[in-house]
Amino acid sequence: MKNSTLAALIAVGTLGVASLGYVFYFDYKRRNDPSFRRKLKREKKKAQKAKQEVEKITQAQREISIDRALTRALEDPLPTDVAQKEKMFLESVSLGESLFASGETKYEDAAVHFYRALKVYPDPIELITIYQKTIPGPVLTIIMGMLARDVKRRQESYYDTFPDQSMQVKAAGLPKGADKSDPKFHMGLVAAKDFAVGDIIYVEKPETSQLTPALKDAEYCEFCLKPLEGIEHPAACEKCSLFKYCSAACKDTAYDEYHRFLCPGSEDASTASSAKELCQSWAEGKELAPLMIAKFFGHMITTEQKRQLAGQESDYTLWERTEHTTTLLLPGKPTDQAHQVRLAALIGQQVPGLEEFMNEERYLSMKGRILRNAIAVRSGGEAAGVAANAASEDYVRSPADAGVTGAALYLVSSYLTHSCAPNAEPSFLDHDHVLTLKATRPIQAGEEITMSYIAVGDRPTPARQAELMEKFRLHCTCPLCEPVTE
Ligand SMILES: C[S@@+](CC[C@H](N)C(=O)[O-])C[C@H]1O[C@@H](n2cnc3c(N)ncnc32)[C@H](O)[C@@H]1O
Question: Which residues form the SET domain (predicted)?
């Protein structure tokens, strides 16, 4: 061994207990950061050079060894508690070092332990750099191979557990049997059982939602979009008195998740001014997306912080889950950049380091996901006459033109494909943003579940297609637009 890995870590002073923000931020980086991935690529290239040192091992043997090492490294659960992680980290690096010193026959064992250390270390980029300097080529090659295989395995197994079984639907590549090169190939939802007309297929809470600006002066709960009419004890934010809530619970949740950094009445002058500008751009009816993105990030941070505090590991973070949905590739506008900068500053104040995460690329990718996947909420009340997408530049998928109170992003419902003859429809039974998907036609197990993104009625095909193209840039291939000829 060139130098001891532990000695190198101590020398750069990285063995302190990491703060929650630090752990949280680098957890994301480890999993998602493109620059980290780029770094991995670079490291992989370097490691490939070192591969030549391992002349005795054939490529096939190496692959087997990498696969086996990864399985072994992940066999025993990793600790979730910070103190336990630190303990395991030190033990694993030390074990890795002594196994390596025992000679070539122990290289794979050494890699297993070094890899377990990498899995619990808060800043994997830093650790890889240190491994690069301290662990000789043959073992480093195995570790980098394990890392690449680990990322691939996670990607491939995502749909094994998503959507949750309780949703009664499965995500599938469609049409059945088509491969990704088929122009009609898409991910969609298929029924896990038969449904009759009127059956509830699933109920889904959104990850973020937003009232339509057309209703900014009307009485609606800012969090769940419920009409306040008839609500006995509505609540309001004491600082900005701009937003009302249908209950203390909605107010508290809103504060917990995002309003603490999005309150235009905040005592902190820079927070107040950024929040005011974001809220104003929504109130002027320009866009739904900036506030939805801000709320989404707040929700994500809160979810992950709670998970960390409770010492729970999640299979996939909310960001990873969101990244599995498709996005629209958008050219950035000057307003996007201004919103992104504001948001980065607001979020960075919550979790130091996270402002880097909220870069322009992620902002636009999130905006594209919202424009592509958000669904119109129709929670009732005064909105009866409000048209879908009213007064906003952002179009939202809506099976009817009127009665739209806002928009929301749902992870599972993001996979619902459009059909001009749909077999399901979203409804909002509690008059809030919780979506209930109901069957509008009999659906057989295995059949694709579809909704309509526009009001279809008895409109002719060219009119429907033109609207779908204009609003969603989609060339409709549903059975009504493109009947299958036998
Ligand atoms: C909300 S996503 C639906 C899930 C989608 N299949 C996916 O892969 O993300 C909307 C996108 O799916 C595709 N899509 C949905 N319905 C379609 C249809 N009837 N015909 C062709 N493409 C459709 C379009 O690319 C559209 O922009």
Answer: 165-454
Pocket probe for ligand 1: among 182, 373, 417, the residue whose CB has the most ligand atoms within 8 Å is 417
Q: Are residues 179 and 221 in the same domain?
A: no
Cα–Cα distances in angstroms (integers) from residue 265 to residues 200, 273, 299, 353, 461, in the given order? 41, 9, 20, 25, 49
Residue 472 near ligand 1, beta carbon < 6 Å: yes
Q: What is the pTM of this model?
A: 0.82
- Give the sheet arrangement for strand 406-409, strand by strand: 208-211, 406-409, 375-377
Residue carrying structure tokens 């990285």: 14
ipTM for the complex shown: 0.97
User: Average of pLDDT values for 391-400?
Assistant: 85
Domain harbouring 166, CATH code:
2.170.270.10
Place of tokens 């900005």: 240
Nearest CA to ligand 1 atom 27: 474
Residue 413 in contact with ligand 1 by CB distance below 6 A: no
Domain with 174 in it: 160-205+375-472
Round to whole Å and give the CA distance between 281 and 272: 14
Q: What confidence tier does 110 reach under pLDDT thresholds 50, 70, 90?
A: very high
372 lines ligand 1 (CB under 6 A): yes
Q: Is 186 in the pocket of ligand 1 (CB under 6 A)?
A: yes
Sort 375 into a burial class: Cβ within 10 Å, 0-12 / 13-18 / 19+. buried
Asked whether residue 87 falls in the same domain as residue 191, the answer is no
Over residues 10-64, the pLDDT tens digits come to: 554 444 333 344 444 445 555 556 666 676 677 777 777 777 665 555 777 888 8
